[in-house]
Write a structure and sequence with these properties.
alpha/beta; Rossmann fold; Alpha-Beta Plaits; 2 domains; four-stranded antiparallel beta sheet; 29% strand; globular; binds adenosine-5'-triphosphate
């Protein structure tokens, strides 16, 4: 055993879905002899998460992120592999486990629509047996951090998407879970509400030490909150490490940004093999070069071009992610 909050080893999930053939005859036949398709959503992933970490779980649509979060939170059973969270096997749905984790899904609501959030909070406080003093203290802290005092008495159905998400987050934290799973918490929110929720999550993590696993299609959520990212693609783990090294590990090229001393015509620019101009504006020039050749090409350019300034950079994280997501060559 190690001191991880979450341990995942060779975790897989294959969904089995009935195949519905076309035509009445075939449909009736399938009632008696059903056939199934196996959809491998998660294929043998392994990772550890330590107490207090905020990990971004990223990948293109259909990569297996929600499936993994559902296994971690005990909503679905893994097909194979090992998985413990806080020492529990989530799929057993032990009441002691469920009191220590929380899951928030941007596209699902756990609030009761017809009553004000405060009443839902009280119900949740009762369900989770939160002592009255702790309930008040926790709620006061969250209300202040989320600046949501005026929302407490309005029926949930009258709240905006962003206001409702504040309530969802507050509800998920009332019993002070040790692990928080967030699936697209900023989905559909405007930029200022996204910023506010990011700030809340960062503050709350610092104050409480809660472990967070977050999926989001907004890279800004991930860059603002997650020092570490796990990238999955087609159900397999492609990268697990610091966000800052993702570009270095996954993009096999570097960007040279040059400022020339004088305007030089395109024809007279003789670039070494493998180098490709990606941007040109005035005296500025961006050149994409294979990572391994960057030192040689840089030396060559300095000798052959009138260069006043030169930097060597990793490509922007968004560009690397975009290429992974769209299946383009890196
Ligand atoms: N209940 C289900 N039954 C059958 N197949 C499913 C089920 N849920 C998900 N899948 C399939 O499993 C794969 C992974 O889906 P999952 O929802 O985990 O991906 P995701 O990374 O969360 O995607 P997104 O970013 O679009 O939310 C997809 O091919 C999806 O169609």
């Amino acid at each position: 055993m190690n001191d991880s909050h979450i341990q995942v080893r060779n975790l897989s999930k294959t969904y089995r879905v009935p195949v519905r053939p076309e035509g009445l005859r075939a449909s009736v036949g399938s009632l008696f002899h059903p056939t199934y398709d196996d959809i491998p959503a998660v294929k043998g992933i392994s990772f550890d998460v330590h107490a207090g970490e905020v990990v971004g779980f990223i990948g293109p649509n259909g990569a297996g992120k929600t499936t993994t979060l559902k296994m971690l939170s005990g909503l679905i059973h893994p097909t194979s592999g090992e998985l413990t969270v806080l020492g529990f096997e989530p799929w057993k749905r032990d009441a002691k486990y469920l009191k220590r984790i929380s899951i928030v899904m941007g596209n699902k609501s756990q609030m009761l629509w017809d009553i004000p959030p405060m009443d839902s909070f009280r119900v949740l406080g009762e369900i989770y047996n939160v002592p009255a003093g702790q309930f008040k203290q926790t709620l006061d802290e969250i209300i202040e951090l989320l600046d949501m005092q005026e929302l407490l008495t309005k029926p949930v159905r009258n709240l905006s998407l962003g206001e409702r998400m504040k309530c969802e987050l507050a509800a998920s934290l009332l019993y002070r879970p040790a692990v928080l799973f967030l699936d697209e918490p900023t989905l559909g929110l405007d930029v200022s509400m996204q910023l506010r929720l990011r700030k809340f999550l960062a503050d709350y993590n610092r104050r409480s030490g809660v472990t967070v696993i977050l999926t989001s299609h907004y890279m800004a959520d991930v860059t603002a909150l997650c020092p570490r990212v796990i990238l999955i693609h087609n159900g397999s783990l492609m990268f697990d490490g610091e966000l800052s090294s993702l570009a270095r590990d996954l993009a096999p090229y570097k960007l040279l940004r040059l400022t020339l001393l004088e305007v030089t015509s395109m024809e007279s620019l003789k670039l070494p093999e493998g180098a490709e101009i990606t941007e040109r504006e005035g005296l500025g020039l961006s050149i994409r070069v294979p990572r391994a050749d960057a030192p040689d090409i840089t030396a060559n350019l300095l000798q052959t071009l009138p260069v006043s300034d030169l930097t060597v950079e990793d490509p922007p994280i968004e560009a690397v992610i975009d290429r992974v997501y769209t299946g383009g060559s890196l």
